[in-house]
Amino acid sequence: MSRASLSVTVSVCLGLASGALWQPIAANAQQAPKTATSSSQQPQAQGQGDSASSGVLAPDAPPEMRHQASQSMLDTMAAQTGTEIAHDPIVVELYTSQGCSSCPPADALFSEYADRDDVLALALHVDYWDYLGWKDPFGRAEFTARQKSYARAAGERTIYTPQMMIEGTQALVGVQHDELKAAIKDDLDAPQPVTLDISGSKGDYQLALAADPPLSQPAVVQIVRYLPEARVDILRGENAGQTVDYRNIVTEWRTVAEWDGKTPTQLNVRFTGKDKAAVIVQMLKPGARTPLPGAIVAAGRLE
Length: 303
Hints:
5 helices, 13 strands, about 35% strand
């Protein structure tokens, strides 16, 4: 992992403030241990001037010419519309651990999606299996906290590894090939609720957010950094003796701004470091003490 810095500048017509509104709180189909919490082993045509002010009526075109012009406009609009409604990549979060014996098959399935343009696959390594004899070097307490927040949002009391979250709304515990494929297809077929325009390069990006209709709940803008790949020789614990290839390993997941989900907003993001980066816009659900993660409504790679 490389050291990195990140700065954010916000330009709004109201409704957005930089800062962190939500910090997720701490799980395996291996069920996470009771001391931790639980493994599945348990997205006008311009006129020809003002004819009224000139006192002259603008000549009309013959019907066949009008038809040709109209068809040309329709073709142009269709092409533009096809570009505008291109869906953001579907965010797939994998909660995994090198200390979980059930996780290597899920890591392998996840890797099949790591290079797809229409999927943003992100692996979050949790830390609650470290006590079994092998400390996951990628494990972070904040990723355990994020998984726990998802459980609270769903009214669940137990967390598992491996677990996948698709677009922040659908949880898949264990290794579910067909269900994952179907969930991604369904989300790609669904309307894109937020328009996210990304411009810039080399660690300096401009983001533009708009929702029509407005979102029913506020959202947060998050920057995710991740390591594209790593090969690890696991020496101890439940997976001792295995060499596992990991993909898109999250090294940082930071909330950088809050958005009311209604006001068109611009955001400038700057960061350093070699890890790859992505932006995720996620709605918030009311929680007992703090807001909880909801549906992911926009996402994109910062390349």
